[in-house]
Amino acid sequence: MKKTTLFSNNQWKLLFFGILLSISMLGCNLKEKKHHVKIKTPYGDMIVELYNQTPKHRDNFIKLTERKYYDGLLFHRVINEFMIQGGDPDSRNAEEGARLGNGGPGYDIDAEIVPELFHKKGVIAAAREGDRSNPQRASSGSQFYIVQGKRFTEEELDSLEDEEFMKESRKIYKKKQWSNKDSILYYQQHQMYEKIDALRERLQQEADSIAMINRHSIPEEHRNIYKKIGGTPHLDGKYTVFGEVIEGKNIIDSIASVKTNFGDRPLKDIKMMIELVD
């Protein structure tokens, strides 16, 4: 009796091709869509790509943009070779010379600090309150800054690492000194100055050891970019970076070079409008 097969060779080939095509299309569908916004300014437009690695900040920025929240707001804080900042709702129709920077939508966003997203020139990051009042480093609900920064040499980056280490060591030392305040006070009252010196030396050694364990080193890839295009490396790991300017980086330089008052507010208002591109 002749043996029969379910499919011919050609049918098997077509079936196999169809499976491969389905898998390929599924992969495309699973790939995350990239979101872009256009920031319009009197100096030109910037196209910003929002990072999918920071979904809370991405979605919040898209939501506010769709609501036209940013339209008419100012770049209210501008510091050349550092950054340009905006997003304060109080800046809309603000009086000339008024101090700005405290406004927001009434909520914060949980920090999404990703080590791979660093402060190279052109990135957009969330402003926030300082560590003392905001130890969780939660972001402002609407205020953001775009990095201009400057180019660094290898030696300057090394010095920056040393400075950050010393800052961290001093912070740890102060906490240890406070926790040993009773002993220090006792030694002072009894003029036991050698004891004070010995205790302080021990606390400093402990602070240095802890700071060394947590010492931040700038990755080589990031160093190369800071040397080539610039940025603000001292902000890395402290603020949420959630996007970057992919077109119109020259607009950052134009805005950063304007004249400002003592509060870093431009003497001539720089209004923005933001719209979704895709």
Q: What is the helix fraction of residues, given as a range?
A: 25-40%
The counted number of beta strands is 10
Average predicted confidence as pLDDT = 91
> Which percent range describes the beta-strand content?
15-25%
Classified by CATH, the class of the largest domain is Mainly Beta
Query: What ranges have pLDDT less than 50 throughout 5 or more consecutive residues?
Result: none
Strands in their spatial order, largest beta sheet: 3-4-8-6-9-2-1-10
The CATH superfamily of the largest domain is: Cyclophilin-like
Largest sheet, in brief, is:
8 strands, antiparallel
Question: What report would you give on this structure?
Answer:
The chain is an alpha+beta fold and 278 residues long. It folds into 2 domains: 35-151 and 229-276, Cyclophilin (Beta Barrel), CATH 2.40.100.10; 155-213. Helix content is 38%, strand content 17%. The chain has 7 helices and 10 strands. It has helices at residues 9-30, 55-66, 154-179, 181-189, 193-213, 220-228, 249-256, and strands at 35-41, 44-50, 75-79, 83-86, 108-109, 123-126, 139-140, 144-147, 241-247, 273-276. Strands 3-4-8-6-9-2-1-10 form an 8-stranded antiparallel β-sheet. Strands 5-7 form a two-stranded antiparallel ribbon. Helix 3 (154-179) crosses helix 5 (193-213) and helix 4 (181-189) runs antiparallel to helix 5 (193-213). The longest helix is centred in the middle third of the chain and has 26 residues, at 154-179. The mean pLDDT is 91.
